[in-house]
TrEMBL record:
It comes from Sphingomonas jejuensis. This is Ketosteroid isomerase-like protein. Residues 45-152 form the DUF4440 domain. Keywords: Signal. The keyword Translocase does not apply.
Length: 166
């Protein structure tokens, strides 16, 4: 078993055994981070900075928050490493994030040693390439602290069409 697989299995066990603390619908980044385990706030700030960089179209800044060996799961696909993500989906992710606003509806997070996980639910609504977008989103980010610096080592994004109110 590789180090990465052992880390992911350990994190899965920790996440399943942890008591999540949820922030309810809010627009304040401070309020969202306030619902996190206090030790996970620094890691959550990296997640926020990653998203802010994508939303501003600054792909190099977003990539700066990823570890070299980051693994990104998105739409059933996988990108293995920061370089692969940079060469494939990062520019499109930035274009989409810049065009279509997203808001966090719930967030939790915790950490164990130098590993943190931030779990986010959200809603993305707007228009992209002339088409209406209304998606409910989920995101899991795993981060590792090395030399006092948090880097994203894994992202798992998922979304579904928002259900219309009856």
């Amino acid at each position: 078993m590789t180090h990465k697989h052992a880390l992911m299995l350990t994190l899965a066990a920790l996440i399943l055994g942890s008591q999540p603390v949820w922030a309810h619908e809010t627009t304040s980044k401070t309020a969202q981070a306030g619902a996190l385990n206090p030790g996970a706030r620094a890691a959550a700030s990296i997640v926020n900075a990653f998203h802010a960089a994508l939303a501003s179209g600054d792909v190099p800044a977003a990539l700066g928050h990823l570890s070299e060996d980051a693994t990104i799961f998105e739409s059933g696909g996988v990108e293995r490493g920061k370089a692969e993500y940079a060469a494939h989906h990062a520019p499109a992710d930035a274009a989409f994030a810049r065009a279509v606003p997203s808001r966090t509806t719930r967030r939790s997070g915790n950490l164990s040693g130098d590993t943190a996980w931030i779990l986010t639910e959200g809603r993305t609504t707007g228009t992209y390439n002339g088409k209406a977008v209304d998606r409910v989103t989920t995101e899991t980010m795993l981060l590792r602290r090395t030399g006092g610096v948090w880097r994203i080592v894994h992202i798992h994004w998922s979304s579904a069409a928002a259900r219309r109110a009856a």
